[in-house]
Give the backbone structure.
Amino acid sequence: MAKVVGDIVIDIEKCKGCSVCIPACPNDVIALSKNVNGKGYNYAETINEECIGCANCAIVCPDGVITVYRKKLD
Amino acid sequence: MALISKEEIRKPENLIYKKTPLLTDKPLSYCPGCGHGTAHRIVMEVLEEMGIQDKTIGIAPVGCSVLAYEFMNIDMQQAAHGRAPAVATAVKRLNPDKFVFTYQGDGDLAAIGTAETIHACNRGENIVIIFINNGIYGMTGGQMAPTTLPGMKSSTSPYGRDVHTMGNPLKITELIAQLPGTIYVTRQAVHTPGNVRKTKKAVRKAFENQKLNKGLSFVEIVSNCNSGWKMAPVKSNEWMVENMFPYYPLGDIKVNED
């Protein structure tokens, strides 16, 4: 049972689709979208709800586009 | 799994991490996956944690990070190519109560600015030097730099760097570690979360040293240059681990505690 749940918010217009966050994620939450943003990059998006809010993706993101939330479940 | 809605998680009290306000909202001009962005953020996060953003003056170099003053929301001065340690010396001597750091690439620090770097380190100026080493001239189109590895292809060494005619890669960090003026010399990387955390600790230690007027702290960050190396970002990070780290091993090179 997961004791914490997390969620990330990605600023898709600033994401450059470098995919450095994808191997950093322990739960394979992130993948590149098939859609592109205003600059033509395939931006990163969440593909499942396994996020634990570890912030690994956010601290390796070169452009700092990821905001991380984490909540403890009672 | 969805025991709790996303709106309930995305509340301000649950916020764990967001981009520091010391970085401006301008999109970074670096290529996708470039380590410069991470290095910028680490420096700014350290300044924010220490609460010294209003007392810090940064010196921007020439190179990819020439526009660092556009992204770092602190007082910055842009220096001529390679002369950032000389400008930092003047700024620190005229404003001894300010925190002064330079942010330089390998073409700036280890090629045209070798003299300024070595002499600033030898004088033991009380500044922090952040050195981004990606083994290539990124901004001008991937030319060979002093730090390019033996056999590494670049636009001016298309058959690979031949050490007999083009010289050996310059390990400038080991070089300046021998100088008595440096107090803390370390080499780090920013390609994985663990390395980012270690780098942040190193940058923090460097600024703490400056707070105590201990001497010059030098933090090298081995980074990728996926455009110059002609690789995808994740592939370039793997290449960096396989090829750069054996020649530029990570870790503290000199820690002078007294």
User: Anything to note?
Assistant: Strands of chain A lie at 4-10, 30-36, 42-46, 66-72. The domain at 4-68 of chain A is CATH 3.30.70.20 (Alpha-Beta Plaits).
